[in-house]
Design goal:
Blueprint lengths: L18 H6 L14 E7 L5 E7 L1 H4 L4 E6 L20 H8 L4 E2 L5 E7 L2 H10 L1 E6 L6 H4 L26 E9 L2 H7 L2 E9 L11 E6 L5 E5 L4 H12 L6 E5 L15 H11 L3 E4 L2 H7 L6 E9 L5 E13 L6 H7 L9 E9 L13 H19 L3 H8 L18 H10 L1 H4 L6 E10 L4 E9 L5 E5 L7 H13 L6 E5 L16 H28 L6 E4 L2 E4 L10 E2 H6 L9 E8 L5 E11 L6 E11 L6 H20 L31 E5 L21 H13 L10 H13 L1
Parallel strand pairs: 1-12, 10-11, 14-15, 18-19, 25-26
Antiparallel strand pairs: 1-5, 2-4, 2-6, 3-5, 7-15, 8-13, 9-10, 9-12, 13-14, 16-24, 17-18, 17-23, 20-21, 21-22, 24-25
Length: 756
């Protein structure tokens, strides 16, 4: 692999190609599509958390002037396929079908029960009021531990726990369990000189993307549907809509709009199948947009959890055993990220003896969706807090304790494979030497550190590279751009082709104009779609060398490619001059036609990414207010293709992790109604809440990628939760195990401590 210092474009910081459109308002988002004769769709949602639907009378709504269509669950085909959903979120297709529109019963407050399409939003809202729904209220269950009890009210009488040695005899709210184990746990704890045991409760939290869900759909007379929507994966959503509406994939076209944030939350459908059905029924295009309250009440947050951890170590700091029991809320339908939670929790450490039990538990709350490293922040919070407690008991520096036990190349990961080249130790060493760690802790504050990890994935991607007649380059691929991936594609294309960055334009094609790409999630896009772009560029280079050979009358192996030119190799007549990409494109009509390259792949070898975070927090003991004095995010990027966007990912992950640690939580009343469904009460950090988040990019290249890329989008949210808890421990002198560290919780903990 070439060293980074040899790169000409990789590692530079050019302006993103979509930047001007976004800052001027020219960019088109999900709600910006307008079509002739378009009407507006709205959704009627359940006021109950758990109830049978006895009847739905839509006759009054259908009779209203200006109402063109009304649909309920009866209008959708039955989906009995329990297969897992693609993309980054969990759950089944049948669960998704029932989530987008309730059938026999509702399972959470906000569950969709009907939808209308009308001439205006005001008429649509009036039509919702005219729909009469008769319910038989059922006992709900909101607590994850109570939901696991044998006598708990059942959300799904057909749910039998998956992952057990044998199918259980009785249904349960526990949809699945994953168990990972190695070694002898009892012997491992017997070897320990110090053991830490804690229980932690973490709340549901939302991704908090700026843009609410929105789409526009139109269905032609021949049944072909076209959907314009913001999403993290229009190919994945096309498949979901096709299955949920009973259409074949070839009859659904998805056109990607710009996306105002997703973080995992826009990897599944909510409105899109409804818009398609309403359009087909009305014969008109239908636009649907969620309010912010609907986003909170009826889309997928991440799981609240209860975690019980036990970790042992010898006097010298060697970890001897670790055990985690964790229950994750799935919401109304199965699909909590219990598997990645189990797989990630011990990944940073060499451990001979461990056991993890992770549970996917249904409760009467919104169905969860992926949120940036789904499951890892919750499970690793428990472990990283325990490691910090061990460091205190052993009198060791918390980074030194992690370094002593840090996973490295050749370490067998808890989830199976042996790690290839990884950068955990480099991150820890950088953290220990960082000025924000070596400086004194501010008076009255506390300092916390924690390690983070995410697997990263490959999956399927496609790309085409077209050479224009003037030698400029068009990259066409199918990965929605959330964090600047178009710039990264252009950088890698420029580096591979040897042409200037400014000569390349990247286009995200729709489902009928480019090859299949899996969802933008799993930190896969720069790695996998980038790999497809690189291979497509290599295809272009091979074509150019062949064409140059034909023009020069030499063999292909006598032509080389250097700095964007076909160059004659040894033995070629000295009078033969190099030909640039523009030269070759101008003569393309003489050498076989337009120049293009393409690649489709299932990318393998996505290198995992590790991190270390440092945070200083100050606590006001009178009010419980927490101030973030400094935050340092150190993470291995493999190779930073565009360092500014890598730093932005670190900072964004840190901001979301800090928000979850200090303030963010779903608050429900006794009836399961969310009480803080808006940004006024669901408190995400704003600029004035945070300092400038310091970043340090560690580059330990991934040997499975030509430029050493590792995904960076998700690892950044994993460590902040534990780092903040550990800073609170340092500042207050005792552990506050549950999150968020909001003023009421901090004050209650202080009061309890004073009372003994």
């Amino acid at each position: 692999m070439a060293e980074a210092i040899d790169y000409k474009v990789v590692g530079t910081r050019p302006v993103r190609p979509d930047g001007a459109d976004k800052v001027t308002g020219r960019a088109q988002y999900g709600a910006d599509m307008n079509l002739p004769n378009m009407i507006y769709g709205k959704v009627l949602r359940s006021p109950h958390a758990h109830a049978k639907i006895l009847s739905i009378d839509t006759s009054r709504a259908q009779a209203m002037d200006g109402v063109f269509a009304v649909i309920t669950g009866d209008d959708f085909p039955s989906v009995n396929d329990g297969g897992e959903l693609g993309g980054e979120g969990g759950g089944s297709l049948s669960g998704l079908a029932q989530n987008i529109m309730a059938r026999d019963k509702v399972r959470y407050n906000g569950h969709a029960v009907a939808a209308v399409a009308a001439k205006s939003l005001s008429i649509a809202e009036a039509a919702l009021d005219a729909i009469e729904v008769q319910y038989e209220k059922l006992e709900p269950v909101f607590d994850v531990l109570k939901a696991m009890a044998a006598d708990a009210p059942l959300l799904d009488e057909q749910c039998f726990t998956q992952g057990l040695p044998e199918k259980p005899e009785k249904p349960s709210n526990v949809a699945g369990v994953m168990t990972l184990a190695r070694g002898d746990l009892e012997d491992g704890f017997a070897q320990a000189d110090v053991i830490v045991e804690n229980e932690h409760v973490l709340p549901m939290a939302h991704q908090g993307y700026i843009e609410p869900h929105a789409c526009t759909a139109t269905v032609a007379e021949d049944g072909h549907a076209t959907v314009w929507a913001s999403s993290q994966g229009h190919f994945e959503l096309r498949g979901q809509v096709a299955a949920l509406t009973g259409k074949g994939i070839s009859k659904v076209r998805f056109v990607p709009m710009e996306i105002g944030g997703g973080f995992g939350g826009k990897t599944r459908v909510y409105l899109e199948p409804l818009a398609v059905m309403l359009s087909e029924k009305s014969g008109r295009p239908v636009k649907m947009m969620m309010t912010r309250e609907e986003v909170f009440r009826a889309t997928g947050p991440t799981s609240g959890t209860v975690a019980r951890v036990k970790v042992g170590a010898k006097k010298d700091g060697t970890l001897t055993a670790a055990q985690l029991w964790i229950a994750l809320e799935a919401g109304a339908f199965s699909g909590a990220p219990h598997a990645p939670a189990a797989m990630a929790v011990f990944a940073p450490y060499k451990l001979e003896n461990f056991k993890v039990e992770a549970f996917d538990v249904m409760v009467n709350k919104p169905t969860v969706a992926a949120y940036r490293a789904p499951g890892a922040p919750q499970s690793m919070h428990a472990m990283e807090v325990a490691v910090n407690e061990l460091a205190i008991k052993l009198g060791m520096d918390p980074i030194d304790l992690r370094l002593k036990n840090a996973a490295e190349e050749g370490t067998q990961a808890p989830y199976g494979p042996k790690f290839s080249v990884i950068g955990l130790k480099e991150c820890l060493e950088a953290a220990k030497a960082h000025p924000n760690y070596t400086k004194p802790v501010p008076e009255g504050a506390g300092r916390g550190v924690a390690a983070g990890f995410w697997f990263n994935i490959g999956q399927q991607s496609s790309a085409e590279v077209h050479i224009n007649p003037d030698g400029t380059v068009q990259v066409v691929e199918g990965s929605p751009d959330i964090g600047g991936s178009r710039a990264s594609m252009c950088i890698m294309a420029a580096e591979t082709l040897g042409v200037p960055y400014d000569s390349i334009r990247a286009l995200i094609g729709d489902t009928e104009t480019t090859g299949f790409c899996n969802v933008t999630g799993g930190s896969r896009t720069t790695f996998a779609t980038g790999l497809a772009v690189i291979q497509a560029c290599e295809d272009v280079i091979a074509s150019c060398k062949s064409r140059a050979a034909a023009l020069w009358g030499v063999d292909e192996d006598q032509v080389e490619w250097e700095d964007g030119q076909a160059v004659p190799g040894p033995g070629v007549n000295a009078d033969v001059k190099p030909m640039s990409l523009a030269d070759l494109a101008a003569k393309a009509h003489k050498t076989g036609g337009p120049i293009m390259g393409k690649a489709s792949l299932n990318a393998q070898g996505a290198g995992p990414s590790f991190s270390c975070n440092i945070v200083d927090l100050a606590f006001d003991r009178e009010t419980g207010k927490v101030d973030v004095l400094s935050f340092t995010a150190i993470q291995d990027a493999g190779t930073a293709i565009h360092p500014a966007y890598v730093e932005g990912q670190y900072q964004g992950g840190a901001a979301q992790g800090i928000g979850w640690a200090l303030n963010e939580e779903y608050i429900f009343d006794s009836n399961g109604v969310m009480q803080n469904a808006g940004f006024l009460d669901y408190r995400v950090p704003v600029a004035s809440d945070l300092p400038m988040i310091d970043t340090q990019i560690i580059e330990v290249p991934n040997p499975s990628h030509p430029y050493g890329v590792r995904g960076v989008g998700e690892t950044g949210i994993v460590a902040p939760l534990a780092a903040c808890t550990n800073a609170a421990r340092d500042a207050l002198g005792f552990l506050v195990p549950d999150l968020p560290l909001s003023p009421p919780r901090v004050l209650a903990a202080l009061d309890a401590q004073e009372k003994g």
